[in-house]
Amino acid sequence: MIENKPQRSIFFKWILNNKFTVFLLNILIILLIILLFTKVRFVFAPVGKFLNVVAPPIFLAAVFYYLMEPLVALLERKWHWKRMVSITILFILLVGLLALGISLLIPYIQKQTQSLVANWPQYWQAVQDWLKNISGQPSFRPIKDQLNASTDTITKSIGSWFQKNFVSTFSNIGSAVGTVTTIIVNVITAPFILFFMLKDGGKFKTGLVKLVPTRLRPSTQTTLTEINNSISSYIRGQLTVAFWVMVMFSVGYLIVGQKYAFPLGILAGILNLVPYVGSFLAILPSLVIAGFTSVSMLIKVLIVFLIEQTIEGRVISPLVMGSKLEMHPVTTILVLLTAGNLFGFLGVVLGIPGYAVIKIIIVKLWRWFTRNSELYDSKAAETQNDNRMNTSESSES
Hey, which bits of the chain come out as E strands? Predict the structure, then answer.
């Protein structure tokens, strides 16, 4: 006796029993949830204000944590020092180095920086006059209007950027005194956060894993470890390379007699945190100053730049950034453009590690989906095809 199987409707076949359709419905639900959050984002305004207050000292403490944690672990593992003793000694050394730097270097750097800021408008005006003289030549008359339009556009962009990032900041805070107070509070608060991060950093990850269901704890532990390793390797590598770039440019400029050697070297180190384009952006102010000093100084600055790029590319970066995040240059540029457009300079600096964290999480979720779904299981697909063939053969017979 042949049993008659119940007939399934088209709705059941193509909607309820279709994995791809269910997958699209899940995506639609996620997008609707995101849309709902955008409509009620005023509810999260206090959370945003809270993060604006606590994020800067936590970020500053996290940077020093990734720099000091290897030393603390080394002293604890190799020489069997107690963790509190190692942290205390490193704090004393750090405070001593900061005090030495403030007493010896800060006054000199401050004097040069003030001179550079005071004289920079003259250099910029000289560059504009030079461009106007070139554009006045008969051979450049066809493109004179285009150069003038481009110069006006750049000037307006710089002015709007300055107004957006500096004037609005001071107006929102209320006064420059508020800004200085905020900086002082962050600098004072960060060491306390850093101390407890070094003391109890391992307990945080353990406590976070305990909040996850038991069957997800091994994968969560592995994911957190990968995220921590990626962020730590990137921060340590970038800061180490930036420090040596600052040293090489400063020493090179001092040797060749370039004006404002220390401010330009510090600027080069800071901008080197931006991958690929940082060093080339940092050399532009130095070229402008050297160009209006003498032709020989311009050549010397270019030689310093070539030597620095050679040492950085062939010695420092391969040694320090051996565990650097592996990213295609096109991906890096796209991430920098997107993060910079959304979050400004902070986005440019933190865009790469942020992308690494998101990438690790997405890869983990994708592997879980492919492992628990039959859409990417070749054995399951072969078994399903065999079952279909057997069913069709039995129905024919």
Answer: none
Rounded Cα–Cα distance for residues 191 and 57 (Å): 8
For 319-369, how does the pLDDT look when each residue is reduced to its tens digit (9 = 90+)? 776 545 567 777 877 888 888 887 777 787 788 888 888 888 888 888 887
253 contacts: CB under 8 Å, gap ≥ 6: 260, 261, 264, 265, 286, 301, 304
Cβ atoms 91, 195 nearer than 8 A:
yes
Residue pair 370/354 in contact by the 8 Å Cβ criterion: no
Read off the tokens for 24. Answer: 């699209």
**Cβ neighbours, 10 Å, residue 339:** 20
Instruction: Record the pTM.
Output: 0.71
Q: Where on the phi/psi map is residue 68: left (φ > 0), alpha (ψ -120 to 50), or beta?
A: alpha
In 211-329, where do the E strands start and end? none
Residue 373, classed as helix, strand or coil, is coil
* Amino acid occupying residue 377: D
Are 221 and 208 within 8 A, CB to CB? no
- CA dist 302 and 310 (Å) reads 12
**pLDDT confidence of residue 300:** 93
Question: Which DSSP category does 318 fall into?
Answer: H
Q: Give the residue from 279, 274, 256 showing the smallest Cα distance to 348.
A: 274
Residues 6+ apart with CB under 8 A from 335: 327, 351, 352, 355
DSSP one-letter string for 88-156 = HHHHHHHHHHHHHHHHHTHHHHHHHHHHHHHHHHHHHHHHHHHHHHHHTSGGGGGGHHHHHHHHHHHHH
Under a CB-based contact definition with an 8 Å cutoff, are residues 308 and 245 in contact?
yes
